[in-house]
Design brief:
- The chain is an alpha/beta fold.
- It folds into two domains: 52-135 and 271-321, D-Maltodextrin-Binding Protein, domain 2 (3-Layer(aba) Sandwich); 138-269, 3-Layer(aba) Sandwich (D-Maltodextrin-Binding Protein, domain 2), CATH 3.40.190.
- The protein has 13 helices and 15 strands.
- The strands form four sheets. It has a six-stranded mixed beta sheet, sandwiched between helices. The chain has a five-stranded mixed beta sheet with strand order 10-9-11-6-12.
- The longest helix is centred in the first third of the chain and has 19 residues, at 63-81.
Length: 340
């Protein structure tokens, strides 16, 4: 807290009375430098706050874009917390977990699987969950450059010209097109071993559809946008991402909505969100949570969160919502560790 110190007239009067040796009652003392009782209490709460904290963001898209888009969020947190806030993007999802575990990052923006793993490995606390289109869940989209193989009906275009088939265009939630998922073979792009929508949930869904995952020729694209690009470029036949990652690269590839067709959705997955290091002071964790939720409710905050991860709003975290991810991770965990 920035404190401003003022010399009060009462101090001068008290000194004058003492110099004159009078018997009158001494003048009332001014407040101490620490301020009022409530101000002093606030100062005490901040006594163990660091001078600087770091906001880490998982690389679900290009790192330089994330850093640029996240700077206003870092600035807003710095203003509200009155401490320096720096942002960074690690090379991969696991890198942010390690940064949280070693004290190199204090706030982490994670996907749901990464949150679960960071809770286990780094002791982070889930503080805020993303909302998109009025929902706290999302799904994997399966996309392809071979619609003749994976579309059982004619692909249809939405208002922006993005093609989808098998009923995905009309569906707001998954699963959709599960019967076609069993046909996946050959080349496929995952996102990252610590991505729920880009790996865990669809891998389990494909396994349950009877696919031998080890028979697939797979890559980890590193980001949802990179998965869409891999399909667009013909590097793989099928790619996985959140819905709809094609829009994040439309400026670079204007016809991606026509060349890459969505053909299936996974079951619903709890949205991503923000975490804090568990060993931060309780008052700081509360202040960070309040600052994030308050900023998300502003017009500027809405625009900034949209630019970072296409977040419409932030909600107080519901840790129990992550149980579906924990269960899937337990079921497929050994496979993920082997391939990761």
């Amino acid at each position: 807290m920035r404190r401003h110190f003022h010399t009060m007239l009462a101090v001068a009067l008290l000194a004058l009375a003492a110099a004159c040796g009078g018997d009158s009652e001494p003048a009332a003392q001014p407040p101490t430098a620490g301020g009022t009782g409530s101000e002093q209490a606030a100062g005490d709460e901040r006594a163990d706050w660091p001078d600087r904290i770091v906001l880490g963001l998982v690389p679900s898209r290009e790192a330089d874009v994330l850093i640029e888009n996240a700077q206003p969020l870092a600035d807003a947190l710095a203003e509200r917390l009155d401490i320096e806030v720096e942002s960074f993007v690690p090379q991969d999802y696991t890198g942010l977990t390690e940064a949280m575990a070693t004290g190199q990052a204090d706030i982490g923006a994670f996907g749901p699987l990464a949150i679960v793993r960071a809770q286990e490995r780094a002791g982070v606390e889930f503080i805020a969950q993303s909302e998109r289109f009025g929902s706290a869940t999302y799904h994997t989209q399966y996309m392809t450059n071979a619609p003749d193989k994976y579309c059982s009906d004619e692909p249809v275009a939405d208002d922006d010209g993005y093609l989808s088939c098998n009923g995905t265009a009309e569906a707001d939630e998954g699963p959709v097109g599960e019967d076609v998922i069993a046909q996946i073979d050959g080349t496929l792009a995952y996102v990252d071993p610590s991505s729920a929508s880009g790996y865990l949930i669809p891998a389990l869904q494909m396994q349950q559809a009877g696919i031998d995952l080890s028979s697939l020729d797979t890559i980890f694209a590193g980001g949802h946008d990179s998965s869409a690009i891999a399909v667009y470029n013909g590097d793989v036949e099928v790619g996985l991402s959140f819905d709809d990652a094609r829009t994040t690269v439309a400026e670079e590839f204007p016809d991606i909505g026509e060349q890459v067709v969505v053909f299936a959705y996974s079951a619903e997955i709890p949205n991503d969100g923000f975490t804090v290091r568990g060993d931060l002071p309780e008052s700081l964790k509360t202040a960070i949570t309040d600052a994030l939720l308050e900023y998300a409710g502003t017009e500027e905050g809405t625009e900034v969160l949209q630019s970072i991860y296409e977040i419409d709003a932030l909600l107080p975290a519901d840790d129990a919502a992550l149980d579906v991810v924990r269960e899937a991770d337990a079921e497929l965990g050994d496979l993920i560790e082997d391939e990761g």
